């Protein structure tokens, strides 16, 4: 992978978009590399959580305008489907994904962050969907995920004005959950990842699946998903371990992902 670094620290995989000379702008190769990294994470049984970040002073500054400038309508649709499909794979990855947003998260970068499960930001982070100022629409899910995260009215405001906001406002509207100093960001992301990894992996993955599926459907259907997941986890060895530890007042737990 030329533009995505893959590192594993214990049960946590760290994916770093590594194209700092272009502020990590997303071109076709970056998207393909990210797709490959997602496959690598999914295949690694010992990876229980993921942190996604960017090299240098940017998370992802957007899609690569130098690649898009000569796109025809067909080229644009093909590029949108490529990025959109990669982001859907990230969103539907069984392992939880934490975005550690260290700088610019504009356009495709904001869309990439929104495809992650939890978003943490540096105080220096900037967010926005500036596409209409370039004569295009968001193409990697921005018109779909942003209203689901911040509400329709705020999403309309941000997308239709091409406004860029800072980390504090992003937290205020619920686009990110926490804001840290630049020096704290990765440590806090790792701390959160390890807090997730301390729990029963199957239960974590089933909970993520229920949330992701539930927000796309009505509450009755979502409740059915949840009942199915609850049944699945009740049949695991980790459920026996977790409940035994509770009844025995034992802090230490030995989850086996089984």
Report on the structure:
By secondary structure, the chain is an alpha/beta fold. The chain has 11 helices and 10 strands. The protein has helices at residues 28-43, 65-68, 73-91, 108-114, 142-150, 152-161, 167-172, 185-197, 201-214, 219-234, 237-247, and strands at 4-9, 12-17, 49-54, 58-60, 97-101, 104-106, 118-122, 126-128, 164-166, 178-180. Strands 1-2-3-5-7-10 form a 6-stranded mixed beta sheet, sandwiched between helices. A 4-stranded mixed beta sheet has the order 4-6-8-9. β1 and β2 (12-17) form a beta hairpin. The model has no long low-confidence stretch (mean pLDDT 97).
What is the strand and helix layout of this fold?
Elements lengths: L3 E6 L2 E6 L10 H16 L5 E6 L3 E3 L4 H4 L4 H19 L5 E5 L2 E3 L1 H7 L3 E5 L3 E3 L13 H9 L1 H10 L2 E3 H6 L5 E3 L4 H13 L3 H14 L4 H16 L2 H11 L11
Helix pairs in contact: 1-3, 4-5, 5-6, 9-10
Offer a concise description of the structure:
The protein is of the alpha/beta class.
- Helix and strand sequence: EEHEEHHEEHEEHHEHEHHHH
Distance between the termini: 32 Å
Name the poorly predicted regions.
none
For the largest beta-sheet, the strand count, sense and barrel status come to: 6 strands, mixed
How many E strands? 10
Percent helix, as a range, is: 40-55%
**SS strand fraction:** 15-25%
DSSP helical segment count: 11
Give Rg in angstroms: 19 Å
Mean pLDDT: 97
- SSE-based structural type: alpha/beta
Shape: globular
Features:
10 strands; single chain; 6-stranded mixed sheet; alpha/beta; 258 residues; 17% strand; globular; 4-stranded mixed sheet
């Amino acid at each position: 992978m030329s533009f995505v670094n893959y590192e594993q620290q214990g049960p946590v995989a760290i994916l770093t978009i590594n194209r700092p000379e272009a502020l990590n702008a997303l071109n076709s190769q970056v998207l393909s590399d990210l797709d490959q990294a997602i496959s690598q994470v999914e295949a690694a049984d010992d990876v229980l959580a993921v942190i996604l970040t960017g090299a240098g002073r940017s998370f992802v500054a957007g899609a690569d305008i130098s690649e898009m400038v000569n796109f025809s309508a067909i080229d644009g649709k093909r590029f949108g489907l490529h990025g959109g499909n990669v982001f859907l794979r990230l969103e539907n990855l069984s392992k939880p994904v934490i975005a550690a947003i260290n700088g610019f998260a504009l356009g495709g970068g904001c869309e990439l962050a929104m495809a992650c499960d939890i978003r943490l930001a540096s105080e220096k982070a900037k967010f926005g969907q500036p596409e209409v100022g370039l004569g295009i629409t968001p193409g990697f899910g921005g018109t779909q995920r942003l209203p689901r995260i911040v509400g329709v009215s705020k999403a309309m405001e941000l997308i239709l004005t091409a406004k860029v906001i800072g980390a504090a406002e992003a937290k205020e509207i619920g686009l990110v959950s926490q804001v840290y100093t630049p020096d704290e960001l990765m440590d806090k992301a790792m701390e959160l990842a390890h807090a997730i990894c301390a729990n029963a992996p199957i239960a974590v993955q089933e909970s993520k699946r229920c949330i992701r599926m539930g927000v796309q459907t009505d509450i009755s259907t979502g409740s059915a998903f949840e009942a199915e997941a609850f049944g699945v986890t009740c049949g695991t060895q980790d459920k026996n371990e977790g409940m035994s530890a509770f009844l025995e007042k034992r802090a230490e737990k030995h989850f086996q992902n089984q």
